[in-house]
């Protein structure tokens, strides 16, 4: 039995933003832009005329989470508890924020161990294997972005909720960083088709979502196509309104970054 050909399943005609009339018009427009030309990350990130840049960032973060789920499927072929028992990116070790609880046994993944603050006085976080960290991070980001408490509307963003953008982007970046340093072939294969990291980096630099000191993937060592995309935007060195603390390198300190 032959399977149906789905090659053109998502090739809907491009519809301009002024032709869309719904609460989800920006999401639909962004997805239409991606289908039209995913390589042109500058055009994808550019704010449409007359639109709110805070809502535009929100839609991008939602879309990044959606597409990163597809990336995780590719990553799972070689990233598991045996190959990557800790969430690392080169010498950086990241601790999962999904397990902050006072119990001596983690209720989410009892097989894992807790990690202490440097003063060894407070039990704060569970050290997941890399793939669990990635899944928990995506689950947490998606839950937050779909929370009616923090994001009750798709047409305006409450001022107090803006602080979550940097936290979400910083944690999503770690997924790319782990893949680049430890699963380079999977990273480059997916990136050469999706240009997802190039888009993420362009978005982060344009809106100062991730501090430049936390960008640990060297632009010059990316594949030639992706490198051209990310080099189109110069690194932004201006401090963001909400300053994030850089993770502490394990090479210089015993502490790890949450």
From TrEMBL:
SMART domains with a match to the protein in the record: Mob1_phocein (SM01388)
GO molecular-function terms, A-Z: kinase activity
Origin: domain of life: Eukaryota
Assigned keywords, A-Z: Kinase, Metal-binding, Transferase, Zinc
Binding-site positions, Zn(2+): 79, 84, 178, 183
InterPro entries in UniProt: MOB_kinase_act_fam, MOB_kinase_act_sf
Protein name: Mps one binder kinase activator-like 4-like protein
């Amino acid at each position: 039995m032959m399977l149906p050909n789905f090659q053109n399943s998502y090739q809907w005609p491009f519809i301009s933003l002024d032709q869309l009339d719904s609460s989800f018009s920006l999401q639909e427009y962004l997805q239409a832009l991606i289908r039209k030309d995913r390589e042109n990350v500058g055009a994808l990130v550019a704010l449409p005329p007359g639109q709110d840049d805070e809502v535009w960032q929100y839609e991008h973060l939602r879309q990044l989470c959606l597409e990163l789920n597809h990336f995780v499927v590719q990553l799972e072929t070689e990233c598991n508890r045996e190959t990557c028992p800790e969430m690392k990116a080169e010498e950086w070790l990241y601790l999962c924020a999904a397990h902050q609880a006072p119990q001596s046994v983690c209720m989410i993944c009892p097989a894992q161990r807790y990690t202490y603050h440097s003063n060894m006085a407070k039990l704060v976080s569970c050290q997941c294997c890399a793939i669990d960290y990635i899944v928990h991070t995506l689950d947490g980001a998606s839950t937050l972005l779909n929370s009616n408490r923090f994001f009750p509307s798709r047409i305006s963003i409450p001022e107090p909720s803006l602080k979550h953008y940097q936290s979400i982007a910083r944690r999503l970046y770690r997924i790319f960083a782990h893949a680049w340093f430890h699963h380079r072939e999977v990273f480059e294969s997916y990136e050469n088709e999706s240009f997802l990291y190039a888009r993420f980096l362009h978005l982060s630099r344009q809106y100062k979502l991730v501090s430049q000191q936390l960008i640990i993937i060297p632009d010059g060592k990316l594949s030639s196509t992706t490198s051209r995309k990310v080099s189109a935007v110069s690194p932004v060195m201006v401090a963001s309104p909400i300053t994030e603390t850089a993770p502490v390198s394990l090479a210089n300190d015993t502490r790890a970054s949450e």
